[in-house]
Amino acid sequence: MAAGADAGTGAGRRVGVVFGGRSVEHQVSIRSARAVTAALAEAGFAVHPLGIALDGCWVDPAAARAALAGEVDTLEAAGGDPRASLEQLLSAPVDVAFPLVHGTFGEDGTMQGLFEMLDLPYVGAGVTASAVAMDKVQCKRLLETAGIRTVEFVALDRRGWQADPAAGLARIHAMWETSLATAAFVKPSVGGSSVGVQRVARESELAAAIDLAFRFDDQVLVERAVPGREIECAVLGYETLEASAVGEIVPGREFYDYADKYLEDTARLEAPAVLAPTLADRVRATAIRAFAAIGGAGLARVDFLLEKSTAGDDKLYVNELNTLPGFTSISMYPKLWELSGVPLPDLVTRLVEIADRRHADRRRLNDGIRDWIRGL
């Protein structure tokens, strides 16, 4: 593994595209990797595929190439030792990693921590920003501290819920009344693809929905259901952050759930979204503020809820940040940047360049710490 090679892009740069993984977004990750691999090749990079099977084992290059070529849609469980299979990464001839493992064990800071330990430059946000963005409760708290509006919510932990569910329900009731909610969403705090997310229209249904959500995480949040539009904006950058054109998700079901995303294909993606120019500018500015608030670098898709107000001022809420969004042919992140004049080959080039600059800065800081200690 050629960590620490001289920075540069295009010809001569070797990019390890990491895809698959243990999360429910395994197949989406493979489709993202196919699109990114083609774009990197068009931009002049040498691509080395790094596939991860459903059981977390890193597969050999031949199996990874078969998935990228469309010969298989899933990297089935290899049945080996994930620790031993890590040799596929350690021996890979790559200068920078381009992770596309969506969801848990890839987007949540775990893979980013591995790359940091290996001193390998990588595309995307660092450990802290990745972990915070993946944890809905912690992300909301951080955004609120930064003065960024999020939907009203109550956070529950497993121990507290099991010890005194009535107290938890009382807190939710108070939020329900104060916010004039007509429904609520119950969500596992950590997770992707809307797995375990339920819309609850009656308070009598809350306890069962909360019990179900605790099957997926040790912390659950209950937030007011916002009647409105689902708006998305893409962010790119490091020293300076930029925001793309704005898009909209039009769900095919009651809300944009797992079935709507992956099983029924009934949702519509509208890009650009039909918004007043001043409102679109507010979305872009808020997307940049939200990404900066979590210490983000590289890329993120920022998801919003837009609620019509009877007073005439539309209320904009940050719903969540996705620090490794999809790159499939229908994914909003690359589509929004293409609309903004950045085609996919240029987009992946900029992401690799950011990875190199961020890695150089982290090395400089680490060298500074060592120099300071030596001088004591």
How many beta-strand elements? 12
Through-space gap between termini: 34 Å
**Level-1 CATH class name of the domain at 14-123:** Alpha Beta
Q: Biggest sheet, strands in spatial order? A: 10-9-8-11-12
Judged by helices, strands and strand pairing, the structural class is: alpha+beta
Order of helices and strands: EHEHHHEHHHEHHEEHEEEHEHEEHH
Number of helices: 14
**Largest sheet report:** 5 strands, antiparallel
Q: Overall mean pLDDT score?
A: 91
> Which blocks of ≥5 consecutive residues have pLDDT under 50?
2-8, 256-264
Sheet-strand content, in percent, reads: 15-25%
CATH topology value of the domain at 14-123: Rossmann fold
| Helix percentage range | 25-40%
Any idea what the shape is? globular
| CATH architecture verdict of the domain at 14-123 | 3-Layer(aba) Sandwich
Radius of gyration: 21 Å
Question: What does this molecule look like?
Answer:
Among the domains are: 14-123, Rossmann fold, CATH 3.40.50.20; 152-224, Dna Ligase, domain 1 (2-Layer Sandwich). The strands form three sheets. The chain has a five-stranded antiparallel beta sheet. Strands 4-7-5-6 form a four-stranded antiparallel beta sheet. It is an alpha+beta fold and 376 residues long. The longest helix is centred in the C-terminal third of the chain and has 31 residues, at 344-374. The protein has helices spanning 26-42, 61-68, 82-85, 87-90, 110-117, 127-134, 136-145, 158-163, 165-178, 206-213, 258-263, 277-293, 332-339, 344-374; strands spanning 14-20, 46-52, 96-99, 153-157, 184-188, 198-200, 219-224, 228-237, 241-250, 268-270, 298-307, 315-322. Residues 2-8 and 256-264 have low confidence and may be disordered. Strand 1, helix 1 and strand 2 (46-52) form a beta-alpha-beta unit. Helix 1 crosses helix 14.
